[in-house]
Protein 1
Amino acid sequence: MTGTSRGGAVTLSRGRGFLRAVMDRADRRNPIDPDLLDGLAAAVTAAEDDAACRVLVLSAHGEHFCSGTDLWEASVGEVPSGGTLPYWDLLERLTRTQVVTVALVDGHATAGGVGLAAACDLVLAGPRARFRLTEALVGLVPAMALPFVARRTGQQRAFYSTLLAEEIAAEEAVGTGIADAAGPDGEDLLRRHLVWLSRVDRATVSVLKEYRGRLFPQPEGLGNYAGEVFLELLADPRTRERFDRLRLRRAE
């Protein structure tokens, strides 16, 4: 790889025909916050602006691919009128951008981290990969992540996984649909896919993804509604009480 640049929550490096965005806060379990969202959005823009780039790879340093939103730090705001929240915007961009987006998950993807992976065109699971939607345990629902997870797994499996906060290990991930391929060496799995993806030109990818979007559209206004559901539950006093009890248990 060449051209590595570090800064903030995401480290970027370039290879032949691809850009790699590495979530780089292993000490904090790579949480979703404004810094991460900005860093990944900038990575999408950089990939789009590079005519030679065909693939954007998302991966992470440490034992956690992404731990989701830090709910104790999350602010309770409002969804812009008729608009969407930044997390939803990023998932939509990963789905629709003209480059192929690949999530290499070789650690824990939790809550919103599952949605981040699921929004990518391909999900590759290394041996340490674990996927778990945990929102229901604290009185939330994965309102923004669920449509992207369900697109992969089917709605009933996504519903089941949410209700039970089911942990899906690497060896099960392909069978559930949350991952497209798994292997004992995540980096080797990625290298092989980059070779295969290099055979498809960017224009073809762009048309294919646009067609997929028309063939399987999201309901109109879903992003706005998903943000409203998330913020409404986050502001609920009962949810805050669950957070406080969980914080106390962790401190004991």
Protein 2
Amino acid sequence: MEEKDKKERTVIHVEVNEKHYYFGSLAAIYEVFDSKTLGIGYGALRNVGLSPQKPYQNKHCIIRKGVLLTISKKNG
């Protein structure tokens, strides 16, 4: 695959009650879950410095940041 065909997008994986959810941003998480459910507010989660090497975990959830690899759609 050529370099120009690769695309990377941030994906946030949230595990709550053994169920898995995927989001495109931290803000999108809070459209589905509230701070009480997750045990952490939006501002505090932003301050954690979430990264692929540094997930966030508490007794309510696990939140991981990753990269979704895609390729460009070919026309024709």
Protein 3
Amino acid sequence: MEGEINRSVHPIFTRDPEDFMQYLNKQVSVLKEDGKEVTGWVYTIDPVSESFVLLSFTDDKTQLDIVMGPSVRQVSVLDENSETYKKRIEAMFRPPEVEALSEEELEKRKNVLKSWLLKNRLPVQVAGNNGELLSISDALFIEPPYGVENCRSTNEIILGRIQGLIKNMPSDQEEWC
């Protein structure tokens, strides 16, 4: 009918993100609408476009495939051992300075910074899937290796103030400058 409004709702509002989370770090086979099949380890899935980012490993190379959401017809899990390539996948997308630090050093940096932020009466909490982020009221996140350049926020005022606070952290508080 003419003048009728299309009231269809985008799938992001009806599909549970947990549906996608079940595939993370698992080896899957994605059947596309053209009949082709793409196999790889799931790095991430965009919940809006429903596109899959897959990594495949051979002895001498790593291949990245992006399967666009509209072309996905079926997803089958081939290997559920999410730990098989998890560290290798995560290492590919970490900044080099994070790779140079041990897990103990990163944990120490996180705790020193958290202590400094708490001392300044900020509501800081540990966040992220693996507890790797520091979060201040869900308005700002600090990623490893927990420096000024690792702060993420859409609020420029909060971002500037927290970065200034980190820059002014006393050297006896921040042994890893």
